[in-house]
């Protein structure tokens, strides 16, 4: 084992973060591949602090991959509400059903990559952490550690192949799962984007950037183009019986498969050119929300009505099951529509 890997594993044995999906360092008991896969899907574009509660709710309700495979799509989408990137939830179900049909998770990257929604990062994470295969796991934390360790000045994302190749040179044959988690923990707690704690870093003796004094500048990144802003409207109508006017969003696209309020202007799939129903509309203000490729600034109108809409349906709404954008609109409009 290389010195870097040995030093990092020694540090990890004493400093590993406790996660509900992890086994203790150097444990003879391997983690459940279902829990590793589920956590990695949830952690894409989402923080550990946010994921913990979602993970615990999911695994309480669906404790095995087969239980998740048998779940209704609408139930899974509702539990996912607030995590964003809803294509992940749809792929989660497709993958769970494929794994159930196989009788369990395959243990190699090559086989894992054949499953719906599993890309190189997730395949490597499951193979290494759940099955102790020497697969190289590279996320944003690992890219930052490698850029500093080897003093790589090529900006991201162009540097990704180079950083992945360098990470592969350090992946040990022994304890590769612990090593993968150790590098990610190091990036999350020590080799942080700003003000890295080099004084207590186990890789300091090997770090080329620290020796050159470039660690706080790395990794370099190619500037992203400024996101455009889309203006639009959301209409929140409530029936006298307490139900809300909602629509089932298309399975693909923004907030795919979720329940939402009628709107226009912010999404190409929004078909309304005017209010979807006659109501005593009142202005509630505006909400702002950022998607991957654009910012949305939406005017929110609220009203009560018993008129039948041309599109959508009246039904009870649990605000906890709404996507974040729709929850913002609900929170803004509900004081005008809920009994005081």
Quick summary of this structure?
By secondary structure, the protein is an alpha+beta fold.
What does this structure look like?
With 340 residues, this protein is α+β, with helices and mostly antiparallel strands. The chain folds into two domains: 3-212, Endonuclease III, domain 1, CATH 1.10.340; 229-337, Nucleoside Triphosphate Pyrophosphohydrolase (Alpha-Beta Complex), CATH 3.90.79. The chain has 13 helices and seven strands. The chain has helices at 3-15, 33-43, 48-61, 65-69, 73-80, 87-102, 109-112, 120-131, 140-149, 160-170, 176-189, 208-212, 324-337, and strands at residues 229-238, 244-248, 259-260, 263-264, 282-290, 295-304, 313-315. It has a four-stranded mixed sheet with strand order 4-1-6-5. It has a three-stranded antiparallel sheet with strand order 3-2-7, with no helix packed on it. Helix 9 crosses helix 11 (176-189). The chain is globular, with a radius of gyration of 23 Å. The model has no long low-confidence stretch (mean pLDDT 92).
CATH fold label of the largest domain: Endonuclease III, domain 1
The secondary-structure class comes to: alpha+beta
The CATH superfamily of the largest domain appears as Hypothetical protein, domain 2
Distance between the termini: 66 Å
Q: What gross morphology would you assign? A: globular
Number of domains: 2
Helix-strand pattern: HHHHHHHHHHHHEEEEEEEH
The number of helical runs is 13
Number of strands: 7
User: Roughly what fraction of the amino acids lie in strands?
Assistant: 5-15%
Q: Radius of gyration in whole Å, from Cα?
A: 23 Å
Mean pLDDT: 92
CATH class categorisation of the largest domain: Mainly Alpha
